[in-house]
Amino acid sequence: MLRRGLISGIAGAMLMARWRQSLVAAVGVMFSITMFVTLLGFMTGLNDLLDGLILNRSPHVRLYRDIRPSAEQPLSKDPQYRGSYALVESVKPNGNRMALYNGGAILQSLRQDPRVLGVAPKITAQVFYQTGAIELTGLINGVEPEAENRFFHFGDYVRSGKAEDLSRVPNSIILGKGVADKTMARVGDIIQVLTVAGDRVPLKVVGFFQSGLMDVDKVQSYTSIGTARKLLGKDNQYVTDLQVKLHDITVAPALAREYAKGFETDAEDIQTANSQFETGSSVRSIISYAVGITLLVVAGFGIYNILNMMIYEKMDSIAILKATGFSGRDVNRIFILIAVRIGVAGGAAGLLTGYLLSSVIDQIPFNTAALPTISTYPVNYNPKFYIIALSFALITTILAGWFPARKASKVDPVSIIRGK
Amino acid sequence: MTQNENPIVLEARKIAKYFHDPATIKVLDGVDMQVRRGEFVSVTGKSGCGKSTLLYILSTMDTDYEGEVLIGGRSVKGMKEADLALIRNEKIGFVFQFHYLLNEFSVLKNVMLPALKLGRLPEKEIEAKAMEKLRILGMDGQALKKANQLSGGQKQRVAIARALINDPLIIMGDEPTGNLDKKNSDTVFGIFRSLASDFNQTLLVVTHDPEFAAGTDRIVEMEDGRILNS
Ligand SMILES: Nc1ncnc2c1ncn2[C@@H]1O[C@H](COP(=O)(O)OP(=O)(O)O)[C@@H](O)[C@H]1O
Ligand SMILES: [Mg+2]
């Protein structure tokens, strides 16, 4: 105990004797830790934001029916041709069934699946929005606003109005911001919607929808699932999409395959649908880590330099310590301790300034029409980054101290004392 | 002389030492010597005859030699670096030509360091003991000064106090007065003399100052890596 205090006392005294250089080395560590924490916090904030833009709003598994020709043509059902090989040319999809077969039953069994967090049924239909003499092509989504809100944050993207208004106000519609701008519709207006079948239905505008993706906002609009059924003249079993949110997103691909087989529908998982986003996120993270670690390595060289210089200057002291009974190991520990102190002091200060810089960035206004829910730059304060940063700082400083300390421990006192 | 019945504190047996740089030369050639408890021995000889080389081997700092060194009757040949460090800490006090104090620390702390390293006594007692040693050397008034605020003669006295702190078996000195003026040399010699006479401290001092050597109990004369008398 006494000895540990002694070693640390000697380390402290040597550090103080060269406090200016030690401070510079510590500031180097502080700077790199600051950048590491800030960069990762900011990049992750951005990643979360961009992920949120698509991934939060996407179902983990989507069940639907793709347009494709029937695999079984009437010809093959004829007993007369059983065993023969039929060649049918120019097969076309018959298109009159976009709905999921047995949508209601599938919904029931999905809701009982323990792996499923929730299911939101949806009807998508091609429509035209009529404004003056012009008809704009569009896509209307019939949704259950409550389910859509709970699982896909629908409400976050509804401006001037509420998602729930869709279920409260009969025959209501929430228009995409782009659609609203083009048709010059305001909340409370009635807009005429034309279905593909040629029916014209007046719907009351109760709000606008701004997803942040211009292409989406220019064509899409939302209505309640009931209104959508009425619009299309369908019964209350009709549903075109089942959007499944899972407890664990990673099992989505496996479940998509299982559902596709079990329910005889098409199923798409989120990973397949949005693979480009995952790639973007991980590339951004890798870049941040690379920059942060590079900075730390540079700071490590700073520590390495100061220690080498210190050892060069303190040759006499090292020789005297050894002559009076300090072992190579003691000397080694003294210099490692000097490195660790610089690293810990710089690292801790860096965590603090990194946090402060992050909170400053967090206050900078960041208003963009594309991101309605964001008003300042996004920053993530995950403690993970702070722990990683501090561990890296410690590892680099210990490594940077290692070789100089080894050199110091190997100093031959005789050659120093004799060499005077 | 009664001293001859005292136990042998330090013994060298057939020490040979070579330097290989630039060419291989034999610096020590079969050195035998014994130092008994309470003896004040000086080693003299022309510059370059191997006095310092011998002393560093006897002090366990140089381990690259042939022959054997016994300290307190125990051979130190082949001992590990850490164990040799412990022997230096506990049994040997060192005084160099260039005082070699740690400038980061106060005079008092410099004296305390070897005892703190040994860790036998609580810090308070070590401090009191260090003050006592400084008092013997007339340096207690400077205890709280930084080491680099002292004059050369004062530094050497502090170095002697440091050498004494662990009550060593033997104090070794390599030209401890070599860098001092006449007055300071006399003071340092007087201190050594009184340590030997009054405190029965064993001392082995390399010097090329004949006057210094003449005042010691025994002179070991060296020439070309050998001991002439004995
Ligand atoms: N590191 C070394 N490498 C080569 N030769 C050395 C080294 N150290 C000392 N010598 C030589 O060894 C001889 C003895 O040196 P030293 O013991 O210092 O003599 P002294 O102390 O008696 O003056 C000298 O000739 C010196 O040049
Ligand atoms: Mg010499």
Overview of the structural elements:
The complex is a heterodimer of chains A (420) and B (230). Chain A is an alpha+beta fold. Helices cover 55% and strands 16% of the residues of chain A. A six-stranded mixed barrel of chain A has the order 2-3-8-5-7-6, surrounded by four helices. In chain A, a hairpin with a 4-residue loop joins strand 6 and strand 7. In chain A, helix 2 packs across helix 14, helix 2 runs antiparallel to helix 15 and helix 14 packs antiparallel against helix 15. Chain A is elongated and about 110 Å long. Chain B has one domain: P-loop containing nucleotide triphosphate hydrolases (Rossmann fold). Chain B has seven helices and ten strands. In chain B, the strands form two sheets. Chain B has a six-stranded mixed β-sheet. In chain B, strands 2-1-4-5 form a four-stranded antiparallel β-sheet, covered by helices on one side. In chain B, helix 3 crosses helix 4 and helix 3 runs parallel beside helix 5. The two termini of chain B are 15 Å apart. The model of chain B has no long low-confidence stretch (mean pLDDT 91). The chains are: A alpha+beta (420), B alpha/beta (230). The interface between A and B is medium-sized, with 27 and 31 residues. Magnesium ion binds next to helix 1 of chain B.
